[in-house]
Every structure is written in C-alpha cells, then in structure tokens.
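[job 0412] stage=complex_fold ligand=zinc ion status=START
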Amino acid sequence: MRYELALRKLVEFVARRASALNQRYELRELVSPSITPLMDKAIDKIVLSIVRRDSGLWCNLCDKGPFTKRGFYLHLIRVHQRDIEFMVKEELNKLLEVVNKTSR
Ligand SMILES: [Zn+2]
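[job 0412] stage=complex_fold status=DONE, emitting structure tokens
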C-alpha cells in the first residue's frame, strides 16, 4: 500500500478508535506485520492523548465537547487530520527505527 494512502487510513483508524466506532480495516492491513503489535500500543497512547471521556467524548486537542461517537469522529477527521497524521508519523518513524536497528 502506498505510504500516503496507508497514512490516511491510519488517521481514520485512530479517529475511529478514539470515537469507539467500528473499524473498517484491521491494523495489520495498514502497517507491516513486524510493527503491528507495537503500533497498536502506540495508537492506544495517541488515543489517550486526544480524547477525554466525561459524560460524552471531549477533544483534548482543542477542548471542545461533549461529542457523540459519530460527532467526535467527524470532528477529528475535519479539524485534526493533520495533528493526528503528525502523531502517527512520529510513532511510525520511531517504530521503524527500532525495527531497523534490531534486524541489522
Ligand atoms: Zn478538537
């Protein structure tokens, strides 16, 4: 899968997990098998940093809320696509660095 496309799908994956919506893809379809378990944990970390659950879903990035699941998903995709993309890229790069080091 092309990197840009995978990245866009990963952003969607993060937004869906943060909103507790059903996923359209499995994580292992989006990243290489060698980093899937680590990326899964990294995404949990990202999700914890962007959502606050307090009678509804609140956005930690801009403090708006409360949202419904669907509303929060749309908010993340419309307003914070770039922010999430940045976080996902950062985690991916970290993991790929680790994987490359250990396979040398
Ligand atoms: Zn927000």
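Residues 81-102 form the longest helix (22 residues).
[job 0412] exit 0
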